[in-house]
Amino acid sequence: MIKKLTSIAITAFLFGCGSPENKDSKITVSSPNGKNSITFELRQGKPSYSVKHGETGIIDASEMGFVFKNGDSLHNNLRVVNTNTSEHDETWEQVWGEKQFIQDHYQQLEVVLQEETDQKRQLKIQFRAFDDGIAFRYQYPGNGTEDSLVIMDELTRFNLSNDGEAWWIPAYQDNRYEYLFTQSAVSTLDTVHTPLTIKSNDGLFLSFHEANLINYASMTLARENGTALKCDLVPWADGDRVKTNGSFTTPWRTLQIAENPGDLITSYMILNLNDPNKLEDTSWIEPHKYLGIWWGMHIGKYSFWESPIQGATTENARMYIDYCEKLGVDHLLIEGWNKGWTPQWYENAMHMFSFTKEADGFDLKEVTDYARSKGVSIIGYHETGSNIINYLEQIDAGMGLYQKYGMHDIKIGQVGSRLNMKEWHHGQFGVNYYRFVLEKAAEYELAVNFHEPIKDTGERRTYPNMMAREGARGQEYNAWSEGNPPSHTVILPFTRMLSGPMDFTPGILDVEIKQGYEGRDVHTTAAKQLALYVVLYSPVQMLADLPENYDGNPAFKFLQDVPVDWSDTRVLNAEIGEYITTVRKDKNSEDWYLGSITNEEARDLEIALDFLEEGAVYEAQIYADAEGTGYETNPAEIEVSSREVTSKDSLKLHLGKGGGTAIRFGKK
Q1: Is 445 considered catalytic here?
Q2: pTM of the predicted model as reported, rounded to 2 decimal places
Q3: Which residues are within 8 A (CB) of 71 and not within 5 positions of it... i.e. 6 or more apart?
Q4: For 288-471, which CATH superfamily applies?
Q5: Where are the beta strands (DSSP E) in 186-251?
Q6: 2-272 has which fold?
Q7: pLDDT by 10-residue block (mean), the chain, 668 residues
Q8: Which entry of 335, 459, 476, 637 is annotated as an active-site residue?
Q9: Where are the domains of the chain?
């Protein structure tokens, strides 16, 4: 439903609208529940905006506009020539997701500005006020010529009204988004990636990000002074920020606003700001769990490359397929099956991978035929090594090969600090590259899992074959580095995960990595590894451990049961970096699942079960840290128990240090 607002529904003060003699105007648009408001103001020909939550100021008047190449700009000497307000309210269904039905309800203000110069160029700004945040974007139609236009700076600022605690990772680093989060005051930041999450001093929880990033540079945030943040567009190697054909539409600049941290997680504003599904047939897109010849490579049991301990062999693939059949897992990822892998594969170089030629000892047809006979689907893998020239020359042949063998899933890696050893992964070049590959994959009916990706900005709504991506420090860091501290996974839901699903690769039950590099472990309890399947959302979840560690393990029953596609999601309690308890309802049954995790501190939580259906009886199948268990002591021990519960009951959970609890509520 789309309806026009009456003049009563929007507070507007227009002075001389359309008149070249007066350059001042002020217009406010509020969210449907009236809590969040955006005020656009034109003062002496310069546009700005501000944001409030109720009577609380969030963003003070902040500059808007652009600087183009050769000293040209579009940010002053403007007047308002038109305004339009409307309300939009619809509910749409996700193909897959953490919530099946999503309401898209906002009030919108469009302002058209025009220069008072001979060019008389126009600039449209769209503002949307949601109950869970605000968003705006620019649309520049061009000047009527076919001349190219290069953006050198987007002047968008976010002048925060108050300081606060921020959780952030640095921008412009070689490992892209793969850094531990730092917690510090906003007033101490340098330049950081989004999503940027802030707990403001007035108690509100904020997340700055962007939505619908297409043919544009991604936005980082640079602190200028105090608590003033500015849009900093990731440049091309030649210093240009955005190259256009003379017109452009920016991504939505987004600010999610919540009164408690869990509401940031259950906000779907980013998805709502993307275009509806463009794929007519989505029957081939299947959320799933999968095994992989992967963890063994990271812990040193196998190699990625051809060697006496080569992981991707036909023999190993058949063994893993047999495990899939035995364990009830219907997908298998095989990395390193193709030519081009060397011990230096991860180093910055223009590695020459083949995407059609098999490694010695591997037969793709034999493997896919055998998998099919066992009811197992093989997931393809393309590691580009960031040699995008080489990859794009072979992409049709490589994806066509997977289509030939009936495969519908692909993981695509871009290991390297720069694409083609030259361009940032998250500049305009990278943005366009990843979108091209995603659309190409759709042509071959391949669902995509990007590693070393561009950040998620909600495009999974438009292309639901965009299943998951990495874009943060995942499980593999526990195999060969100092690892991720227990607090890492209680920060991710409020930061990286706000942008979209992550292929974190949980499920290590051998948490002390007895077969791996000496001194390495995953810094969690095994029960927490189970709980991560509920807390860290992805429609494709890896069962990352060696399959022999699952075989005969009673805790594996939870990993067999837990779904990857949900009808509803709720956060029952949360404190950023401390703990979180999430429940999700299975899309294909009446069952609910709970995941509760903590940081380095042990804690006791009492959970009300009022999310369960009233009057119904459930069996709570509980997988908890055993007595005395923590990430430093006896971490692998899980206590499995069950009891009958109803919506009127509550459960007391004990989480050991770095621990967690996972529960299946099976409706009886």
Answers
A1: no
A2: 0.95
A3: none
A4: Aldolase class I (3.20.20.70)
A5: 191-192, 196-200, 205-211, 219-225, 228-233, 242-244, 248-249
A6: Beta-galactosidase; Chain A, domain 5 (2.70.98)
A7: 34 36 80 98 97 98 96 94 97 98 98 92 97 98 82 98 98 97 98 98 98 98 97 98 96 98 98 98 98 97 97 98 98 98 96 98 98 98 98 98 98 98 98 98 98 98 98 97 97 98 98 88 97 98 98 98 98 98 98 98 98 98 97 98 98 98 98
A8: 476
A9: 2-272, 288-471
